Amino acid sequence: MIDLLGWVATALFAGSYLLKQPVALRRTQALAAGLWIVYGAVIHAAPVVAANLIVAFLALWSSFARQGPRPAPETSADRETPPPGT
Description:
Blueprint: H1 2-16, H2 22-42, H3 46-64
């Protein structure tokens, strides 16, 4: 049963590379890393747990990080109303 968990984690991680959207890929990798964390804990393999904690954190962080440049804040000049009659 424990081996099945490892195989599912492997399949999920490998399958994530078939996804076209970067956010979906990273979140799927985070899920796979979560399964690897459970697997590593059950078999008492601290390096597996540690490595996948890092992978899961980075995958989730990068999937929620804002992509691209942020818009400039609005200034009072942007909010000026045109003079009446125009």
